[in-house]
Structures are given as C-alpha cells and as structure tokens.
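--- STAGE predict ---
source: upstream dedup step, 1 unique chain passed
mode: sequence only
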Amino acid sequence: MIGIFIGLALMMYLAFKGFSIIWVAPFSAGIVALLGGLEVVEAVVGPFMSGFANFAQTWFPVFMLSSIFGKIMDDTGMAESIAESIGKVIGKKHALLGVLIPTALLTYGGISMFVVGFSVYPVALSLYRKANLPRHLIPGVICLGNFTFTMTAFPGTPQIQNLIPISYFNTSPTAAPIVGLVAGTFMAVTGYFYLVWSQKKSVAKGNQFIEPKDKKVVTIDEDKKANVWWSLSPLVVILVTLNILNFRIETSLLWGIAVAIAINLPKIKKIAPSVNEGAKGSMGAIVNTSAAVGFGTVVQATPAFATITEILLSIPGSPLISLAVSVNLLSGVTGSASGGLGISLGALADGYLEIANQQGINPEVFHRIASLASGGLDSLPHNGAIITLLAICGLTHKESYFDMFIVGVVIPMLSLIPAITLATMGVV
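--- STAGE serialize ---
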C-alpha cells in the first residue's frame, strides 16, 4: 500500500511540475509495480498497456468526434458568434454573466472544453476592457461555466465526464436528473455569487483592466462571424439526438458535425483542415487520459489494491460517500476527471452495483454522484485544462488560480452534500 501511495504522489508531483503524463504515468506505474511485488517490465507492457488500450478503444471515437466538432465550430466562427451575441445582449454592466452564459452554453452544447476557452476569451477580453474590470478575474468565470455544472451535473450534457459512467451502470446521459439539476444549480448560483464578491473585492482594492503583456488586443474577426441562430443549431441537434432520440453519443456528434458542415458549405475548403486539426488535437487528450487509466490498472494488479478496495467500500455511511471519495481522490491524483472516472469505476463499479442491488439503490444515482465527484479535485493546479486556460488568458496560477480553485474545486465538492442527501432520501 505504501508503494501505491508513493506512485500516486510521484505522478501527481511530476504532473504538477509540468512533465507529460504520457511518460509520467508508466514511470509511476513501474514504481508501484516494483514496490508492490510485481515484475516492472511485465506490469508496464501487460496491465498498463491493457488498461491504456481498453480505454482508448472505447472512447477514442468520442474524443475525436468531439474535438472535430469543436474545431469546426471554432474555425467557422459559429462558437464566437454565439459568445459575442450573448455578450452584446448582456452588456458591459454585467460582464461576468456575459462571459459565464456563453461559456456554459457552448460546453453544454458539446463543444470540447479546451476549444471553449479559445472561443470565449476574445469576448471576455472585450467585455472586461469596456467595463474596466481586472483581467485576472476572467479564468475563474470561464472555469465556472466550463469545468463544473455543465460538465458533470446538468443531465444530458454530452461531455465525456457524463458519458463514462453509462457503460458501468447501464444508465443514460440524463441519469438522476433531479439530483443533477440541484447539484448543478448549487454550483452555478454559489459560484456566480462568489465571483461577484471576488470582483467587488478586487475593484475595491483599485485593480482595473490591464492589457495583456504582449499588448496584443484580441478581437473578433469580422470575416469569421456567423449568424447566431444558425450557429446554435448544431448544438441543439446534438442535445436532441442524444437525449430525446436516444442516439449513441458518436451518432449525435456525427449529426452535429454534419449540420455544422452543411451550414458552412461555402467555407468547405476551410472545413477540411479543421477536420484534420480536430482529429489531431484529440490524440493528446485521449492518450493522456488512457495513460492515467493504464496507471490505475497497474495499481489494481497489486495485491494491496484488494485492501484499498475493501477500505473504500466500507467507508461508514452511504456507499455514495465512498464512491464520491474514491472518484475525487483519483481524479485529483491524475489531474483528470475522465481519468479518475476510468480508474475508479473500472475497479469499483461492480462492487457498487452489487451494493445497489442489495440495498435497492437506483444505479442512476451512482452514475450522477460519480460524474459530480470527478469534477472536484480534478481541477488542482496540475490539471491540463487549467494550465491551458491560463495560457489562453496570458495569466499565471499566482494571478488567477485562487478563484479557479474556489469555483472549480471547493464548490463542486460542496455540491456533493445536497446531491448525496437527496439520493439517500430516494430522490432521483
């Protein structure tokens, strides 16, 4: 067990320092194998690669199609059109909402979380410049709309964190809708009022808008603008086909891509490179997540893991608490919500299903709690999406991470309290 904790700590430390999870995960898995009584090379080429390959086989189509869809929406200007139109309606007096709403809408519509940051940032920069608000507040707002309630809580979201539990619990994207809506509303409302307070506090200190260090003003390209209503239609198609027509997520994404291409046929020469770039862009995400899952597979292969499983499953109180704890911890260690989900559910889902049958608990509740829990400790400083968003905004952890920590870690973890309470009461 000590070896497992050393391997986990090492992977977390190296990832935090900016080293690639692609080699950090197998290296840390080798440490776990060495200290856990396994043959190192056999553990890496065996269980590690088995877990890596199984996850990639299952989820690569979703990662690729989601990335292609997001890239098309970005390069054709449809994502920016949605963000800018909402920003104009709300205006500079409510700049925070002008950034939060389009971010949430794009994420809930199925656009990759990495792409959303690129699409919304120019709008956020313009609104905060006009309102003379501190630029360091922007990442926290985008984080709230991107990495929280639209990613894990609201039923029907096509984000991967809501889809992974489906195959383990035989559920649907809309699993436990009331629990999800309550938890999601808690995150959105609490996060919004916290950011309002943070903004007032910052302005009271005399902070105001400061141009990026490179003095490059990011603006919306007039040639890229698209009609906002046409731009919304691919998002609507994905949500309808996934949640009402009950299509597979791969099919829903294909429909969304087809509609986006059809709307932009005059730009077909530009769309072809977008498809290529989107496909290439998906490789980093799927490989990183698969590597994290591979590490978890090696941990599962050690004799000590049976003891850890027994400890997690025997946490006093509702089994939903132990599920939330295990998913949160593994998501935090890997710096990945999807990675944490893949590891924890791969190891523990059967045990929780057995408990569900024994205690008469609806499996949909396990789905929703697992999804919610993945969106807590995953947003620690070494998270790839956090690092990418800060880079997009030209800011550092020191300047902006505290707000991101509150809305992306603390509040999502607190949302588990009403969610588990409702689920324990039998509300689904």
